Amino acid sequence: MLYEHQGQSPKLHPSAVVAPSAVISGDVELGERVQVLHGAVITAEGGPVRIGAGTVVMENAVIRGVSGNAAVIGDHCLVGPHAYVSGATVEPEVFLATGSRVFNGAVVGRGSEVRIDAVVHLKTELAEGTTVPIGWVAVGTPALIAPPNEHEAIWERQRELDFPEYVFGLDRDTPDLMVQLTDRYGARLARHADDREV
Questions:
Q1: Which CATH architecture has domain 2-162?
Q2: Predicted pLDDT of residue 188
Q3: In this model, does residue 139 exceed pLDDT 90?
Q4: Buried b (16+ CB within 10 A) or exposed e, 173-192
Q5: Mind telling me which PANTHER family this protein's record contains (predicted)?
Q6: Is the pTM of this model over 0.85?
Q7: Beta bridge mates, 72
Q8: Rg of the Cα trace of the chain?
């Protein structure tokens, strides 16, 4: 399904193939021979989405462009089932495995692998050819790549990246942080009320 969102309609190269149950919404461009499989969602939520030639977006993957951060996926990438990319740049020939997550402002260098359930955190940059092992977390620049049981080391790097401020413009110490965050985010997402199928 293709949707116009905030006056922008998806642009698909004639050779791109989108499964009938996938959703493509807003300022999204799919390059030559892009394949989008069932259940995938590619949506411009305040920032554009650009997907390069020969890339495959598998079942139930989510790719979101967000305010302040476009989602850019390079040529010949594989975005695995249930992978999640929000406002990040994924350079050409990258493998994002099943359940991997790449967050706002991150850059995944050419030829890298983000393996099953691995995370590339906010504003993290991976050098060309980097591997993030199964279930591990990459955080910061230069990236600390650590297993999830090293929570304290990850949190030290993660804290300075300041997710609430960077993504939502809110101070982490705001007394009613989650109330303000959900109200602000809900208002942004309510813009879908006027979407229309194209």
A1: 3 Solenoid (2.160)
A2: 86
A3: yes
A4: eeeeeeebbeeeeeeeeeee
A5: DYNACTIN SUBUNIT P25 (PTHR13061), GAMMA CARBONIC ANHYDRASE-LIKE 1, MITOCHONDRIAL-RELATED (PTHR13061:SF29)
A6: yes
A7: 50, 89
A8: 17
